[in-house]
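> Could you send the Putative iron-regulated membrane protein prediction when you get a chance?

Sure thing. Input:
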Amino acid sequence: MSTITAAEPAQHAASGVSLYRAIWRWHFFAGLLVIPFMLNLAVTGSLYLFKDEINSTVFAHHYIVQPAGQALPAERVAEIAAATVPGSTATSYKDPAGPERSAIVTVSGDAGAMLVFVNPYDGKVLNVVGSTDEFNYVVKRIHSLAYFGKAANRLIEIVGGFAMVLVATGIYLWWPRRQTGGVVSVRGTPGRRVFWRDLHAVTGAFAGLLIFFLAITGMPWSGYWGANANAWLTEQGLGYPVQLWDDVPKSQKVTEDILPKSGWIVEKAPVPLSDIARAQSAKPIGLDRAVEIAKRLGMAPGFDMAIPSDETGVYTASLFPDDLADERTIHIDQYSGKPLIDIGFNQYPFLGKAIEWGINVHQGQEWGRFNQLLMLATCLAIVLSCGTAVVMWWKRRPAGRLGVPPMPPRRSVYYGLWVITAIFAVAFPMSGLAIVVMIAFDQIVVRFVPVLKRVLA
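Output:
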């Protein structure tokens, strides 16, 4: 009896050590793989948080104007923009968000899509920039790695999942276990490894939930998960209210095809068709009339207006502002001026609203300056976590080896972790698959390849 009693604490201790080592090993491998990408996300994300401030200072020469009398009609501004780029046609018009803001017209031609910044008072062209060369667009594309192609964008989706894993495993490793420091305080000096370990742990503990929030609210933009989540929400009636499209003819285009910016929920919503029968007896209402209709319907300043590209197209006004209550999309028949679809944030189902709210907070738009500074602090915490992780690893690694945390004494501990991985893979397939590959490599390849076993020790 005494032998059994004495064995129980030992078995419990062995199980605890095995679980700790397994999770530590996961945490190490995940961090090793994603540190460069996390740094990119933090730096580019910090820049994008202050996109409006950057536009108003660094690029004030084409975003800011001096109000002077009556503004030119939208159609006249679009004509000036199209004439600036020979052989082009105007495809969208951005209504100035304020009296001191320029109008922005997107034109398309042989050279591709261009942004033409026009002073709305005197018609002076302030600048012409390729739509894919605009600073904040480039920053956003580098942030998602879409700038480097589809495969790279899939990679950042995996990184987002790994970030969630790092937070979860990091909290487990940080959790107090009778230690006297490293929970809310930092021990030692910069010359000692324990200083960097504690700084890493405490930073992660305090910023972990915000980092997790940034990771999960960034997922809607990912190529695979985001597109499939949007489609699933729509099918389940949890995205945009599809019944609004029941009585209007639909084109093959979706909102993101015709506008530079719109709410995530309606990006994949179909664009309706104008009444083609009226084209035989009526002329298009024109951009000026379309802008007037959008404003009369209560569209807040700063909206984008897509211009029909053919006789079946519609005028589409869309706004994705800091104040989500003003988020709205209106499709207008180009002949009758009738609003075919008028959908705003207050019409989204609860889950749709929650996702849009998460995106708004992610971009630092929901609570003004406080929101920006909170997300900036989270980005800086990511940079600090990455930096301390590298220093901590460098100080503990054995000569000629990678310094991977030791294998757990009981490999049976992985059974439960495999179940957790399977559940995670269902929710986030790309990240889950990458984790499966990582664990399989660690448990199968490393175990039976002596060179790898020695290097990864």
